[in-house]
Amino acid sequence: MERARDIATVAHHWANGIGEQARASNLFFEQENIYSYGYHFLIAKHVYNNTGGHAILITQKKYSKSTSAHVTLVRQASRHIQQISVPNPDWPADELFEKWYSTIKGIAGSLANARNPAKFILEIQQVYGEAKRYTDFFGCEIPEVLQQAGEIKNLGQYQEVIQKETRLRKAQAKREKAEALRIQKINLKRWRTFQANYITTADGYDYLRYDKATERLETTQRVEIPVAVGKQFYAVVLETIAKGGCKNCPDRLMNLYDVLEINAHFIRVGCHKISLKEIKSFAKQQGWS
Question: What is the DSSP string of 184-227?
Fold first, then answer.
């Protein structure tokens, strides 16, 4: 990396696109990014939008006096370019929106006991203004919940925003769960037909298949046991359920795996949780019942 005369030279070369990299003391840049001390602290980066507009995303983070001095120097060296303050120049838009929203929510929470609510309303508008400058430059939309948070002027509006956020997050979680289960269904079908050796499930359960070549029962976590052992254990499961089930059961599968729970809905053996419906379906396929 090219050694520059001093940190001011580094900052100005970066700001004006002179060279691809340079360092002086603990300030250095590579391509569009400029750092303080190391890659862990990105001060700023050059960005461009779809219309060719040029701006600087510059961090709001604080670390030390020397790093703060670096940030100030970079701000001064690039003041001829549009500057947009962000929590972290390396974060994608959704993480930035989440951070801006949580910051506003934290400020708005102080309205309940505020002697001077105007102070907090001004802080909210300042944070929202940062988000607005970012979206104006990149031509993207501000999430609805962040937009409403930016309009908070009293405690009642704050409470409305929190309630709406709760509803939106629940709806989003429901959609994400449905999508995860849809993908699990596809992956499980591939696994059952031996197109995959291992899958991670989204519903918290494990599943079973039979490998004719090895005559072994396999789980989605790639644990294998002889099918004869599986048949014997199936009889134990049914017998235990008939007696009311158990927790921390006395049995150990193959003297290796602790049987943690057997009930009318599922069994837990070691790190596996398998529904009784899945077990009975597998048993029927094998002709055990």
Answer: HHHHHHHHHTTS-S----SSS---EEEETTTTEEEETTS-EEEH
State pLDDT tens for residues 18-49. Answer: 998 899 989 999 999 999 999 999 999 999 99
Helix (H) or strand (E) holding 99: helix 93-108
Q: Are 34 and 44 in contact (CB under 8 A)?
A: yes
Tokens of 54: 């040029």
pLDDT tens digits along 207-241: 999 999 999 999 999 999 999 999 999 999 999 99
* d(C-alpha 162, C-alpha 105), whole Å: 8
* CB hemisphere CA count around 177 (13 angstroms): 8
Residue recorded with tokens 């708005």? 108
Cα 184 to its chain centre, rounded Å, is 19
Q: Bin 267: left if φ > 0, else alpha if -120 < ψ < 50, else beta.
A: beta
> Quick one: pLDDT band at residue 1, thresholds 50, 70, 90?
low
Domains of the chain, residue spans: 1-88, 91-203, 204-286
Give the Cβ contact number of residue 280 at 10 Å: 15
pTM of the predicted structure, to 2 decimals: 0.60
The string over 30-39, giving b where at least 16 C-beta atoms fall within 10 Å of a residue's C-beta and e elsewhere, is eebbbbbeee
**Alpha-carbon gap, residue 85 to 68, rounded angstroms:** 14
pLDDT digits (tens, 9 = 90+) for 78-134: 999 999 999 999 999 999 999 999 999 888 888 877 777 888 888 889 999 999 999
CA separation for the pair 210, 217 (Å, rounded): 5
C-alpha radius of gyration, the chain, whole number: 29
